[in-house]
Amino acid sequence: MASTDETGQLGQQASPFGTTPPTPPPGDAAGQGARMPRWLPRAMMLALALVGLFQLGSWAFHQLTGLLINVLIAFFAALAIEPAVSRMAARGMRRGLATFLVFIGLLIAIAGFVTLLGSMLAGQIIKIVEDFPAYLDSVISWINAHFNTDLKRVDVQEGLLRSDWLRSYVQNSATGVLDVSAQVLGGLFQLLTITLFSFYFAADGPRLRRALCSVLPPARQAEVLRAWEIAVDKTGGYLYSRGLMALISGVAHYILLEFLDVPYAPVLAVWVGLVSQFIPTIGTYLAGALPMLIAFTVDPWYALWVLVFVVVYQQFENYVLQPKLTAKTVDIHPAVAFGSVIAGTALLGAVGALIAIPAVATLQAFLGAYVKRYDVTDDPRVQGHRGRGRGASIVTRVRSLLEGRRGTAPESSADPEGPSESGPPESGSGKGSAPA
């Protein structure tokens, strides 16, 4: 025991600070090193909760993607009919009744167009079926005359009816009837959903804006209302430009179809105008296919003329007509419009292509108020005119170099033996002049 006390006293005397902290026992040090920090379980639980919420939100978003797209379409549809509804409501009519009348007018117009188009298609299909034997006889006679064969229409019909391709096609068509019916029912349900949401957005527009602004401070409320007004103007301008282009396209195709004496020219012209403008990406080709088919029943060369006219008019519309109308109504650059359509198609498909231009125009007009702009100096380089200094082109430099060589060549070759006898020119008294 005495040796232990002496060792402790010696250790205390050896410390430079005069005292040494008490050393804990070996068992307590091991227990503190193996104990889990108190914050670690809470952090782990919080991380697991965040991961679970993210997975739940991602699953819910993917499940509700169809509904969100329908709501987005309904919102832009409500913005499109907002000017008409507001104008009728300003005259004393209730917004619900005004919205209902607008929807009834659109429904009557669409139903009438579909009825006329359906009757036209039914008549043309019946005509094609009735004239099919005559077409088949002409084709068989052409083959027999050019290939020295002896085909008959009866043999061709029997071979076609007994072919395995026709049997497999009929079986696949029979099994695909249920799929087509399900798709039709799904499309009708989607159309009903969009109609209901757009009706509520248009009829309860003031209430919706009030509910949205009630959770924002006054400064943010003004910005939201301004963005809403810009969206209404841009969407209306976009539809106005599309409707005007549809009218011009319909009139141009009507003149062609009437000149070729194609039946149902007015209905076909309306079909081409509407489908080519309001169905993005494939609308032009889908719109031109039906007039080509009807023209083919009159004369196969007429179908070729219709195809050439559709292609030429599409180029005129893309490069001349559409940029001017879009710049005046939507106030968006044609390149930006084209890029927005491509981006919208990549994100949301045909729906994104349809609503991309008004959405981008709204965003551009809203953000334009917060971008500070300055006056541009009167510099020729702004207009693309480059100076002769550093900006001179390579062609200009090469041309000036060649001209300089041509000018010095006669002087060097005039007297190859040396300077002339007269010597250098003298000035004044002949003593020379001092260098400047």
Structural class: mainly alpha
Mean pLDDT: 75
Strand count: 0
Low-confidence stretches: 6-16, 411-436
Beta-strand portion reads under 5%
Describe the structure in your own words:
The chain has 436 residues and is mainly α. Helices cover 78% and strands 0% of the residues. Helix 14 (334-348) packs across helix 15. The termini are far apart. The relative contact order is 0.05. Mean pLDDT is 75; it is low at 6-16 and 411-436.
Show the helix and strand layout:
Elements: H1 2-14, H2 26-34, H3 39-63, H4 65-90, H5 95-147, H6 153-161, H7 164-175, H8 177-203, H9 205-213, H10 218-259, H11 265-278, H12 283-298, H13 300-329, H14 334-348, H15 350-368, H16 394-413
Helix pairs in contact: 4-5, 4-8, 4-10, 5-11, 10-11, 10-13, 10-15, 11-12, 12-13, 14-15
Short description:
The protein is mostly helical and 436 residues long.
Key attributes of the depicted protein:
mainly alpha; 16 helices; disordered C terminus; 436 residues
